[in-house]
Design brief:
Largest sheet of chain A: 7 strands, mixed
Number of helices of chain A: 0
Number of helices of chain B: 0
CATH architecture of chain A: Sandwich
CATH topology of chain B: Immunoglobulin-like
Helix content of chain B: under 10%
Shape of chain A: globular
Shape of chain B: globular
Number of domains of chain B: 1
Helix content of chain A: under 10%
Order of helices and strands of chain A: EEEEEEEEEEE
Strand content of chain A: over 45%
Distance between the termini of chain A: 37 Å
Radius of gyration of chain B: 13 Å
Oligomer: heterodimer
Largest sheet of chain B: 6 strands, mixed
Largest interface: A-B, 21 and 26 residues
Strand content of chain B: over 45%
Radius of gyration of chain A: 13 Å
CATH architecture of chain B: Sandwich
Structural class of chain A: mainly beta
CATH superfamily of chain B: Immunoglobulins
Distance between the termini of chain B: 37 Å
Number of domains of chain A: 1
CATH topology of chain A: Immunoglobulin-like
Chain lengths: 115, 113
């Protein structure tokens, strides 16, 4: 069974540039999550979807960050006008359904450096 | 406010020793506590988990001890191996309300051969 696939693995931007990260979850997993992991910190939830619907995006910096999952499968996280503080690894995860007790399966992450 | 706290940023043990990683939490509603293991360049992966109705969960060399009254838990890695060198994240979530999985800041374990 294929795991969660993310691309690109690395991105280096200058401040003010935009970047999009793509995620392909495990087949059959209806819940998809985007986490931000700054260096030497734990993952912090940005947004999550059940199928194509956004369930919680309260921690997504909405002025510059956006995320979509139009067909309930793949997802894209976009950062516009990047700032140095956005430097982090962006992790995508999926689970068979949402709720406490569900195992999250993470991709390898997309590492972003903003200079 | 850190809802899930891991007291040690790093821990070094010798091969064969028992590594003990500690974690505490603030929210009494948390009832599910997984530990995730992360190697450099990889995403976190579930290692072992416990629910608040239990005080101990064992899986091979890995054991979680849970103290609901004190709101803390620990991960014991028996007979540590160099291959166990990784960062370990304690996490927590609640069945009711927002189920969101909250991660601690991680403990980087190094097992010296």
């Amino acid at each position: 069974e294929a795991g969660v696939t993310q691309s690109p693995r690395y991105a280096v931007l200058q401040e003010g540039q935009a970047v999009s990260f793509w995620c392909d979850p495990i087949s059959g997993h209806d819940t998809l999550y985007w986490y931000q992991q700054p260096r030497d910190q734990g993952p912090q939830l940005l947004v999550y979807f059940r199928d194509e619907a956004v369930i919680d995006n309260s921690q997504l910096p909405s002025d510059r960050f956006s995320a979509v999952r139009p067909k309930g499968t793949n997802s894209t996280l976009k950062i516009q006008s990047a700032k140095q503080g956005d430097t982090a690894t962006y992790l995508c995860a999926s689970s068979p359904n949402r709720g406490a007790g569900n195992t999250l399966y993470f991709g390898e992450g997309s590492r972003l450096i903003v200079v | 406010q850190q809802q899930v706290r891991q007291s040690s940023q790093s821990l070094t043990v010798w091969e064969g020793e028992t590594a003990i990683l500690n974690c505490s939490y603030e929210n009494s509603a948390f009832d599910y506590f997984p530990w995730y293991q992360q190697f450099p360049g990889e995403g976190p992966a579930l290692l072992i988990a416990i629910r608040s109705v239990s005080d101990k969960k064992e899986d091979g060399r890995f054991t979680i001890f849970f103290n609901k009254r004190e709101k803390n838990l620990s991960l014991h890695i028996k007979d540590s191996q160099p291959g166990d060198s990784a960062t370990y994240f304690c996490a927590a979530s609640a069945s009711s309300g927002s189920w969101q999985l909250i991660f601690g800041s991680g403990t980087q374990l190094t097992v010296m051969p």
